[in-house]
Write a structure and sequence with these properties.
It is a single chain. Helix content is 5%, strand content 42%. The protein is mainly beta. It has a single domain (4-322), classed as Neuraminidase (6 Propeller). The two termini are 19 Å apart. It comes from Bradyrhizobium sacchari.
Length: 325
């Protein structure tokens, strides 16, 4: 029987074997996912076909991005169904149509800014848009910075530096915005989400999170909620400690936890477990799509076990179907 995660009105059924790929295809790590206005799912992955497009039943529609992307990391879709593809392997953000035509490139492919220089980009991680269409980029692994660009890609300002104080970052891993223009940043290794106004002024932070990795704003403009993907332990010493994830947490706009999905007994491939939630999107029915970097994370979580073939094939994409009372 498929597992049911969550409680009350936040209950989700795990859809087994969701992705139906052509013979011989694999997704490998799914870094991020997005859903367009027709509920088509865009799966930004690190396999041979970087962007795989599925319908909401998991049927394969098409792919694109072969030879274009170096290492998939972040994916955002706007109200006009334009995709913002963040590639931390070649330090760029590409705005693309849903059939793969590149409309805008921010950053110089394969030319990173100096490490921790604060200049864009050094292994950028994700994008989000302001209500005016301005582009925020989290940056990332080789910087501790958020950059703000005009809709046509001109740098407006940047903020952030390495550290643990408010406004400082320790792997700025994901970014989201709401209809009022607030900016939410997953500050992964500081175990928090920081909240800023649209100009980068620190407002508050959400704690009681474990390595927040994925971040999705949903629930409508008046009462936004957020789904946060949390990684499990990254150290040998606490690898088998319970209640640290990997898991999903659902919080309100003040960061108060509404629900938590999974994570009590650590990672796994069984129904109801996660490996390494890295990207999250919701469709029009409220179903959740979770991209996971289970291949990259396998040796961290399971150093003495051989990775099952299903992890590389399709297991790094999960669908959680909302259970309606």
């Amino acid at each position: 029987m498929p597992a049911i995660l969550g409680t009350g009105e936040h209950r989700y059924r795990v859809v087994e074997n969701f992705a139906k790929l052509p013979d011989g295809w694999t997704l490998t790590d799914v870094a991020s996912v997005a859903v367009d206005s027709r509920d088509r799912i865009y799966v930004f992955n690190r396999g041979a076909h970087p962007m795989v497009v599925l319908d909401r039943e998991g049927n394969f529609l098409r792919s694109f991005g072969e030879g274009l992307f170096s290492r998939a990391h972040g994916l955002h879709i706007d109200a006009d169904d334009n995709l913002y593809c963040t590639d931390d392997g070649d330090h760029t953000v590409r705005k693309c149509t849903t059939d793969g035509k590149v409309l805008l490139t921010i950053g110089i492919p394969a030319k990173p800014a100096p490490f921790m220089s604060g200049e864009p980009f050094h292994r950028c991680t994700h994008t989000a848009l302001s209500p005016k269409g301005e582009i925020y980029v989290s940056d990332g692994y080789g910087n501790a910075r958020v950059h703000k660009f005009t809709p046509d890609g001109k740098l407006i300002k940047s903020w952030g530096e390495p550290g643990t104080d408010p406004g400082q970052f320790n792997i700025v891993h994901n970014i989201a915005t709401d209809a009022d223009g607030w900016v939410y940043v997953a500050d992964r290794e500081n175990h928090r989400v920081q909240v800023f106004d649209g100009e980068g002024r620190y407002e508050t932070q959400w704690n009681n999170l474990h390595r927040p990795c994925a971040l999705c704003c949903c629930g409508g403009a008046k009462r936004p909620t957020f789904v946060i993907g949390e990684l499990g332990p990254g150290l040998d010493i606490n690898r088998n400690v319970p209640n640290l994830g990997p898991r999903l947490s659902i919080v309100d706009a003040q960061g108060k936890r509404i629900a938590r999905l999974g994570g009590e007994a650590g990672p796994g491939v069984a129904s109801g477990k996660f490996l390494a939630p890295h990207g999250i999107a919701l469709d029009s029915k409220g179903d959740i799509y979770v991209g996971e970097v289970g291949v990259t994370n396998w040796k961290t979580s399971f150093p003495d076990e051989e990775m099952p073939a299903v992890v590389r094939a399709t297991r790094c994409l999960q669908k959680l179907e909302r259970v309606l009372e």
